[in-house]
Amino acid sequence: DAGVTQSPTHLIKTRGQQVTLRCSPKSGHDTVSWYQQALGQGPQFIFQYYEEEERQRGNFPDRFSGHQFPNYSSELNVNALLLGDSALYLCASSHRNRQGEANYGYTFGSGTRLTVV
Amino acid sequence: EDKVVQSPLSLVVHEGDTVTLNCSYEVTNFRSLLWYKQEKKAPTFLFMLTSSGIEKKSGRLSSILDKKELFSILNITATQTGDSAVYLCAVREVQGAQKLVFGQGTRLTINP
């Protein structure tokens, strides 16, 4: 049973560039949430995707955008990279219960370490 | 603004010691509190607490929630070097995406 898969594991980009990070959810999960974890800090919620739509967004600028595909996998895009975007980007997948409540079986991937130079 | 604060931020103890990690929160729409262990990258789930006063246990780890005083503790007894990690506390909201609001973590180091 594959868990949450993220790619790439490491990435180095230059300021001003754009980056795309990918996440494949755990089998049976239909919801993907993205978090940013700066060094020495706890993860911060970026946004969540369900049924190919962004359902909620944290306090992140529009440079951060995402997408969810029909197979539930997701991408996180960051434009015009800043040095401060350097962080571990975590994807978490989950499923909704019969009442439509999110975040059951919440499982994290191993993350993508993004370094902006 | 929702806030989760963990203490201490860093802790160094000897193998065999007992440790207590603290988590306090100010969250408007509280649903549950979760503890995670993060060794390298992926946080791994330890406990989910929804009711006050009910202790959850898993081996040498235990946790309890106080919803009146808005805090939780995570206890680890007879610590081992393999317990060295960052321990994250997170609160899950009731509404919307039910996102997790994390504390900054406690870095625990167990010396042999």
Short description:
In chain A, 0% of the residues lie in helices and 52% in strands. Chain A contains no helices and eleven strands.
Strand element count of chain B: 11
The coarse silhouette of chain B is globular
Q: Rg of chain A to the nearest angstrom?
A: 14 Å
Beta-strand residue fraction of chain A: over 45%
The helix tally of chain B amounts to 0
Strand content of chain B: over 45%
- How many DSSP helices of chain A? 0
Q: Give the SSE string of chain A.
A: EEEEEEEEEEE
Helix content of chain B: under 10%
Pick out the low-confidence regions of chain A. none
> What is the number of E strands of chain A?
11
What is the chains' assembly state?
heterodimer
Instruction: Measure the end-to-end span of chain A.
Output: 37 Å
Largest sheet of chain A: 7 strands, mixed
Q: What ranges of chain B have pLDDT less than 50 throughout 5 or more consecutive residues?
A: none
The helix/strand class of chain B is mainly beta
Label the overall shape of chain A.
globular
Distance between the termini of chain B: 41 Å
Mean pLDDT of chain A: 92
What does the model show?
The complex is a heterodimer of chains A (about 120) and B (about 110). In chain A, about 40% of the residues are buried. Chain A has about 120 residues and is mainly beta. In chain A, strands 2, 4, 5, 6, 9, 10 and 11 form a 7-stranded mixed sheet that branches. In chain A, strand 4 and strand 5 (about 45-50) form a beta hairpin. Chain A is built from no helices and 11 strands. Chain B has strands at about 5, 10-15, 20-25, 30-40, 45-50, 55-60, 60-65, 70-75, 85-95, 100, 105-110. Chain B contains no helices and 11 strands. Chain B is globular, with a radius of gyration of 14 Å. The model of chain B has no long low-confidence stretch (mean pLDDT about 95). In chain B, strands 2, 4, 5, 9, 10 and 11 form a 6-stranded mixed sheet that branches. In chain B, strands 1-3-8-7-6 form a 5-stranded antiparallel sheet, with no helix packed on it. By secondary structure, chain B is an all-beta fold. In chain B, a hairpin with a 5-residue loop joins strand 4 (about 30-40) and strand 5. The interface of A and B includes residues 33, 41 and 56 of A.
